[in-house]
């Protein structure tokens, strides 16, 4: 981008649109008076200079149409100077020109607080070299704002809270990223984003160095990285000295073949990994060095859109290492090649979600005493049986899993109130409904004694082969049903037998 801009500038210089400055500095250029006058006439409806507002009142009237504006810095600047910009609703560029005041420019705190929220379409703004203590939260509402220069962040010595960096693919000199001095900022949340569209001009080695140079302060609580195309992660990601980091996401880091040692982060509670398109193995390196129990506080773990991921090392039956004992939410979505079994040490798991994993096979985790919701969709080879004892299971959704088995010998589902089963074996559907029926008898009896209404249940059935008749539980417990949905059961002949219809005054179909 800089090279193209340089070519344009040299072309304009050769045509006398610019000329060397009389100051004698070779890097300074000015626009000749005639060209300057012509430029102002041509751009008078879209460009606005604050200093011209008294000279050209007509231009002030057209400020609503202005797209670009500039002004000269002063030693002290308050809201009165910028009042006219209340009308500049379509402003894209808002830049100060430097003056001899250098670093001694003071900007009243109410200027960014009152002015920036009104410039909703602002894309480029520069507050460097101002002695400011804070930037308003409303800065995050300027959806079109672009980062001007990373090095200018280095001047914001009091920057706190949340910082989002976009367009990092444009940083081609890694050392310039270090000038942002992020390790000196008291940030709680840091988001770093490269373009998600890769092209041949991007250099993975440069992006690795840039990410390394952008190392934040170790008190950081949240880190989000998106679109990064380096081939690996720098050492600071996963460093246990980041002892406050509780939330971390890696999104579309498409060239990384392995994960950093995130298990070493002692306060990590939420971890989201998405779009790592070349990663094949989640191995021991994911957990960190031995001697410390990994993922001590992890509660949410999500993998999504991992097309090459094949296996997940989870320590198997090694009881001395149980990395996921606090996980409450586990999600695995769109992992087309994942083969191996899931972790087994999930005593606190509350929500299990598995979708679009066509090669996943093997057994389900055995002991899930806290599981409240189980959702499995489009896993045609998953034949592992549902755990026998699920005392807290409230919501069961199984879809497009034609080999998914449920055995009825000793299964217990006392809390189940919502059932959705689509394209599963008929025997599995029957077992689930029969177990619900057995529980229902006990619930009805207990409710009769306590005079409390029995729990209502929703039932959705679809694409069940060989289903000719609804199970008894649906008939006898029909009054408890809040919702009943039956779709694409082509062999279904009737909903209930005649004796059940007569006994319960049910309609004929």
Automatic annotation (TrEMBL):
Which InterPro entries does the UniProt record give?
LRR_dom_sf, LRR_R13L1-DRL21, WHD_DRP
Spell out the coiled coil positions from the record.
none
Lineage, top-rank taxon, reads: Eukaryota
Task: Enumerate the spans annotated as R13L1/DRL21-like LRR repeat region domain.
Answer: 150-276
Q: Which residues form the Disease resistance protein winged helix domain?
A: 1-39
For this protein, the record's Gene3D superfamilies field holds: Ribonuclease Inhibitor
A Pfam short name: LRR_R13L1-DRL21
Q: Which UniProt keywords apply?
A: Nucleotide-binding
Q: What is this protein called?
A: Rx N-terminal domain-containing protein
